[in-house]
Write a structure and sequence with these properties.
It comes from Dactylosporangium sucinum. Pathway: Cofactor biosynthesis; coenzyme A biosynthesis; CoA from (R)-pantothenate: step 2/5; Cofactor biosynthesis; coenzyme A biosynthesis; CoA from (R)-pantothenate: step 3/5. GO terms for molecular function: FMN binding; metal ion binding; phosphopantothenate--cysteine ligase activity; phosphopantothenoylcysteine decarboxylase activity. The protein contains 15 helices and 19 strands. The chain is of the alpha/beta class. It has two domains: 179 residues, Rossmann fold; 217 residues, Rossmann fold (3-Layer(aba) Sandwich), CATH 3.40.50. Strands 12-11-8-13-16-17-18-19 form an eight-stranded mixed β-sheet, with helices on both faces. Strands 2-1-3-4-5 form a five-stranded parallel β-sheet, with helices on both faces. α2 crosses α9. It is globular and about 80 Å long.
Length: 410
C-alpha cells in the first residue's frame, strides 16, 4: 500500500436512498480532490438513484454495498474502525431512525455502530418528515450521543414542494466535514464541547434606507460571523445565524434568518437570544439611520445636495447584556480604526457598557478585515484578561473565540 495513501484522512461516505443522493457525487469529488481517501457505502435504496459504477469511478475505491461482499475482510467492522470521519449525505428519515435505534441491518448501519470517529449526518427529506416528532426524537438521540446532525436547508424539494428539508449544498457539507476532521484528534468532550448548546451568531452589515434606492451601510462581508457559525456547528451546537445583507452561502446546519436594517437585526437577535446559551454579536450594525425615509427617490435640485438628518440606532449588544440570563455568554465585537492601545481602551469601555463577557477588538478599514480571509484581534474578558491573537484565518480565529466561550460555559 502506498504510504501517502495511508496517510490521507480516511472518510466513509454513507449515502442513503433519497433523491438528493445525486448531490453526494459533488461532495465525493470535493473530498477526493482535497486529498481524502473515501470509501462510499450506499444503501440498497441509494443504488436505485446512483449506481455503483459512478461511486467507484469518482472515489477511485471499491464500493462496499453489503456485509457479504469481501466477507473475509469483515467490512462491517473494519470500515468503521479505520475511518477518521463518517459522513452520511443524504441522511433520510429512515436512516436516522435506524441509526438512533442501533439497528445493523445493512453495511452502512453496521459501519455507524463500529465507528469511533466523528460522525456527521446531513439530513434530506420532506418538511413533514423532518418535523415529525419521531424524527425530532431520533435527531435529539443522535446528538446526545455525540453525532453532528446538520439542520436541513430551506428550498425546493421534490415535485412542486418547497420548505425545510433540502440537503445543504455539498460545498457547505464539505466545509463542515473538514472542520470535524480538524477536531477529530481531540477527546469527544473537547471536540463536541458545544453539544446541546444553542448558539446565536449575527453577521454582516445592516443597511438603513434613505429612499427607495439609497441606503447608509458599511463594508462588513459577514465572513467572520459565518466562520463562527460553522465552527459552532462543528462543535455540536445548534446555531441560529442572523445574517444582514450577506452574499455568502448558508452554512450547512445553521438556521439562517435574513435581515436588512438594524431594527430588524435587533428584533431577530432578541427573539433568538431568549433560548440561547451563547450570543456572538459579530455583525456590524449601522450606528445611525436617517430620521426620515423618503418615499420616492430624492432628486437633485439645481445641483444642490440634500441635508440628511440622522438619529441613533439602538445598541443591540447593550440591550442583550442588560437582560442577559444567568449562564448565558455574550460576545461583543468592537471594530476600531484607532491605533492598538486606543482601540483596546475603546474596546474595554464597550465591554463594560454592554455588560458582555468577551469583546473581540479588531482594526478595520479599507483593505483591513472587511472582506478579507484573515483577521487579527485582541480579545478582552469581563475579568480584565487581555488575549492578543496573531493574524489568523477567520476560521482559526473563530475557534479561538469559541475556546474562550467553552471555558466560560464550563
Amino acid at each position: 500500500m502506498d504510504q501517502h495513501a495511508e496517510a490521507r484522512p480516511r472518510v466513509v461516505l454513507g449515502v442513503a436512498g433519497g433523491i438528493a443522493a445525486y448531490k453526494a457525487c459533488e461532495l465525493l469529488r470535493l473530498l477526493t480532490e482535497s486529498g481524502h481517501r473515501v470509501r462510499v457505502v450506499p444503501t440498497a435504496a441509494a443504488l436505485t438513484f446512483v449506481g455503483e459504477a459512478t461511486w467507484a469511478a469518482l472515489s477511485g475505491q471499491p464500493v462496499a454495498t453489503d456485509v457479504f461482499t469481501g466477507a473475509h475482510e469483515v467490512p462491517h467492522v473494519r470500515l468503521g474502525r479505520e475511518a477518521d470521519l463518517v459522513v452520511v449525505a443524504p441522511a433520510t428519515a429512515d436512516l436516522l431512525a435506524r441509526a438512533a435505534h442501533g439497528l445493523a441491518d445493512d453495511l452502512l448501519t453496521n459501519t455507524l455502530l463500529t465507528a469511533r470517529c466523528p460522525v456527521l449526518f446531513a439530513p434530506a427529506m420532506h418538511t413533514e418528515m423532518w418535523e415529525h416528532p419521531a424524527t425530532r426524537a431520533n435527531v435529539a438521540t443522535l446528538r446526545e450521543r455525540g453525532a453532528v446532525v446538520l439542520e436541513p436547508a430551506v428550498g425546493r424539494l421534490t415535485g412542486a414542494d418547497t420548505g425545510k428539508g433540502r440537503l445543504p449544498e455539498p460545498p457547505e457539507i464539505f466545509a463542515a466535514a473538514v472542520r470535524l476532521l480538524r477536531r477529530g484528534g481531540l477527546p469527544p468532550e473537547q471536540a463536541l464541547d458545544l453539544a446541546g448548546r444553542h448558539v446565536v451568531v449575527t453577521a454582516g452589515g445592516t443597511r438603513e434606507p434613505i429612499d427607495p434606492v439609497r441606503f447608509i451601510g458599511n463594508r462588513s462581508s459577514g465572513k467572520q460571523g459565518y466562520a463562527i457559525a460553522r465552527a459552532a456547528i462543528a462543535r455540536g451546537a445548534r446555531v441560529t445565524l442572523v445574517a444582514a445583507n450577506v452574499a455568502l452561502p448558508d452554512p450547512a446546519g445553521a438556521d439562517v434568518v435574513r435581515v436588512e436594517t438594524t431594527e430588524q437585526l435587533r428584533q431577530a437577535t432578541v427573539a433568538a437570544a431568549g433560548t440561547a446559551d451563547v450570543v456572538v454579536m459579530a455583525a456590524a450594525p449601522a450606528d445611525f439611520r436617517p430620521a426620515v425615509f423618503a418615499e420616492s427617490k430624492i432628486k437633485k435640485v439645481d445641483g444642490a445636495a440634500p441635508t440628511l438628518e440622522l438619529v441613533t440606532n439602538p445598541d443591540i449588544a447593550a440591550e442583550l447584556g442588560a437582560a442577559k440570563p444567568a449562564g448565558q455568554v455574550l460576545v461583543a465585537f468592537a471594530a476600531e480604526t484607532a491605533e492598538l492601545e486606543r482601540a483596546v481602551a475603546n474596546g474595554q469601555e464597550k465591554l463594560l457598557r454592554k455588560r458582555a463577557d468577551l469583546i473581540v477588538v479588531n482594526e478595520v478599514g479599507v483593505g483591513k478585515t472587511f472582506g478579507a480571509e484573515h483577521n487579527q484581534a485582541v480579545i478582552l474578558t469581563a475579568e480584565g484578561t487581555r488575549v492578543a491573537m496573531p493574524e489568523l484565518s477567520k476560521d482559526d480565529l473563530a475557534d479561538r473565540i469559541l475556546d474562550l466561550v467553552s471555558d466560560r460555559l464550563r
